[in-house]
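Subject: Sanity check before I submit

Could someone independently write out the structure tokens for this chain? I want to compare against mine line by line before I put it in a report. The sequence has 131 residues.
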Amino acid sequence: MDSRASIVIDYLYDEGRRDIILFGYILGLVTSDGENLYQKTPEQRFSDATTLSNFLVSSGAFVAGKTTNDSNGEFKQYIFEDFEDFIVLNKSNFEKGGIDDIDLITQTWLKKVTKKDIPEIIPEFIEKLFE
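---
Independent answer below. Compare away.
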């Protein structure tokens, strides 16, 4: 039987083929650890979502980005050159409004950029996010 982590990773790779994956969605995926829904603190959820995002980006299959609104009201998407900038922006939004901050949930995202398949082995540190 597949682990919860491998099911989530498989789902993210599949979803990434179709659309961007909002950071808020990743926060939702790491909310529960197995059967214990909502037992994680907001800080732990944020940390786990950041860890999962870093794993996906470091695989080379995804990039991290953000959506902004220009003065004409048009939405623009930007790719972060450095993943650390993604973390800094998310941390700032988390500190500003907590786990439910609208910018934390909707401003940043991951986008699949290669046809790479799901990793054959899910590292233990990712498995632990879902235990």
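---
OP: Matches mine. For the report I'm noting this point. The beta strands are 21-22, 62-69, 75-79, 108-112.
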